[in-house]
Amino acid sequence: MANAVRCYETGGPEVMRWEAVEVGEPGPGQVRVRHEAVGLNFADTYFRSGLYPVELPAGMGVAAAGVVEAVGPGVTHVREGDRVTYTGSPLGAYSTERVMPAAPLIALPDAIAFDTAAAMTMRGLTAAYLLRRIHPLKPGDTVLLHAAAGGVGLIFTQWAKLLGITVIGTVSTEEKAEVARAHGCDHVVVYPREDVAGRVRELTGGAGVPVVFDSIGRSTFSASLDSLARRGLLVCFGTASGLVPPIDAMQLAVKGSLFVTRPALADYIADPAERAELAGELFDHVGSGRIKIGINQRYALADAVRAHRDLEAGGSIGSSVFSL
Fold it and tell me: pTM above the 0.90 mark?
């Protein structure tokens, strides 16, 4: 008998239930995967809380790594026994095994452990599209990255250094500042006690940065706009503090003809060829040791309630996983 985390209503962490579930055989285009490790991502809290609409009852989780145990008719890109990782819909990664569509599965190189894959697949592909698809960044550019000590932030910073990009990172504590610096962040701003936009202007000779990468949302939106250079781009890719306020188009003009985008990972990995290209680059960096994935929080799947509480409290550093 398999086990899974299920939600019958949206709300706080307490709505999640650990249950025994039946897992059948895969149908056309499906596989059955036995999970070895499951990713814990902040986006999971959006589905649980109802910020992202979900049909109830629902499973939880969008990322995991494991072994293909059975393959349904029509599946050709993976076989029984393959090591795989994935991120994306449908929900249900918080489980010991599941039947799911085969399409999202990505072959996992032997050089990358299951827990590393679960910790990095969603975060690493996010860093990949932010750095390689959103804006034509070049060596010598300086960017502002919020939550620099988070799971995406630590991967992003290491990758940015490989590309010759200078990173100004924001963090909430001195402990996180030390972690960000250790992973290559060039300048760290502790935002509870420093003026982020003022510090960015100081570090850039008053010019501001061409791109701000903001996964925080409401509480950082104003400072992000004020940190941009003329015709700069604000990339809002998360809402940890809440949704960004309505955008006043005239404000964008007054502040320097700015641009704002709200990208979603799903739209950058929907095409199998593009997903393979981004994943291949990510796996190459991680497999060679050029990018290191630090797993700083580990939980049992049955402790999903505690894991979500810890995540939303803001104390997590780097990546978190559920170990099976």
Answer: yes
